[in-house]
Amino acid sequence: MRLFIAIDLPDEVRNALAELMAELRQKCPEARWVRPEGMHLTLKFLGYVKDDDGGKQLASIRTALAAIRSTSAVDMRFRGVGFFPSAHRPRVVWCGIEASPNLAQLAADLDHVLEPLGFPPEKRAFIPHLTLARFNEARPSGKHARSASGREELVRAAEALAAREFGATRQTEFHLYESILKRSGAEYRKLETYTFAGEAA
Length: 201
Fold this sequence. Notes:
Elements: E1 2-7, H1 11-25, E2 32-33, E3 41-48, H2 56-66, E4 74-85, E5 90-99, H3 102-114, E6 129-134, H4 145-159, E7 165-171, E8 173-182, E9 185-195
């Protein structure tokens, strides 16, 4: 089983981002745009977890996740469009997230409870974002000049979207998901929901 931990998006944010991606897809159709219904904020990717040990590893993960607590809900505002690693070498197109400090603490807490189970903590700083699209190459050239032109147009469009907002949410739950790889793309199955704070306002 390939597992990850994530926070879901409210429908209004998902719908706003679906409209954005439809708009940007026209400028750069060769990018691999994600499906809006599968979008989520990943807190930690666990990777492959054994399911042939009588479910012991999965049970340990579930017990660890149930212990996570925060003093308040996580507030998030979705704003702007950018690129990893940079606009000059775009590999990933993302929507930015402005979040309350306890979101980063939540990710750190997940690292803390899962490390004893054999899941190494993240080495990179936690940067909350939503992946909108990916590219197979860092920068096409030559016969791929048309693709390069599409990327440049996409980068220009993103500059105009730096302050555009796509909604906000307050969340008190995260979810354990299974990622099922298929030829049509990854499908996600929610295994369990965990409440880490009181009811959202």
